[in-house]
Amino acid sequence: MAFAEVRQYQPGDDIRSIDWRVTARRQSPHTKLYEEERERPVLLLCDLSPSLFFASIGAYKQVRSAQLAGILSWLALWSGDQVGGIVFNGRELTVQRPARRKKSVLQLLDTLAKLQKKPEAIKTADLQESSLTANLDTALREARRVAHTGSRIFVLSDFLSISTETSRLLGALARHNSVSALRIADPLELHLPESGRFAVASEEGPVWFDAGNPQFQKAWHEKVERHENELAECFRTSGIVPATVMTSDEPAVILQSQLGPRGRIG
């Protein structure tokens, strides 16, 4: 049994559980409550696809995704839970079943480091050949196969590659598990500056755009609005409330909203 909380004494409570220090301080009887400790599988779906190799501020989205996965994996292990992960980068997908061992966390961190590859290291032909086996939808299908009922699942992605199937896959996963979506985004993806010329790296080299061009601004806003609406509908129909992590954010601070008492994964 693990300590849960202290509350005011109620008739029927075991007097042996009275917290005498709190009782003396508050001048009314208070008792300690305990809960049964249970191992729970925690599964981390970590997206390291080429679209996450981007940032206009802070750290690359890939880096934030890996940092979030690393923090969550250690928290889960320290809470006595099993830790596993599905890591994918557009070309490769690695599945690690949950286990309660430090070695499992270290293995997951090693996989995160190995699959963080620069876009130029992932050939276009490889992406086309593997797009059906290493994307978000495939990771969600793998999660349904690997996850035991009652698992705690975190999906770490920028969700730029959602499809018509993503909502159904998320909803099916959430029916028997507790699922959280941590969306990783960059400010430049959502809001363009009103003016200025900017360069964005691509496979063909730098791509320059003029933020002050009205036609470009209009096309950009329409595309962003369309994707935002599709993503909102995806989360709504799947019943999942997402949290957003910006590239400028500190992952540890953002994760506090996802944690329960004493820093445990909620």
TrEMBL record:
<dbReference type="InterPro" id="IPR002881">
    <property type="entry name" value="DUF58"/>
</dbReference>
<dbReference type="Pfam" id="PF01882">
    <property type="entry name" value="DUF58"/>
</dbReference>
<feature type="domain" description="DUF58">
    <location>
        <begin position="5"/>
        <end position="229"/>
    </location>
</feature>
<protein>
    <recommendedName>
        <fullName>DUF58 domain-containing protein</fullName>
    </recommendedName>
</protein>
<dbReference type="InterPro" id="IPR036465">
    <property type="entry name" value="vWFA_dom_sf"/>
</dbReference>
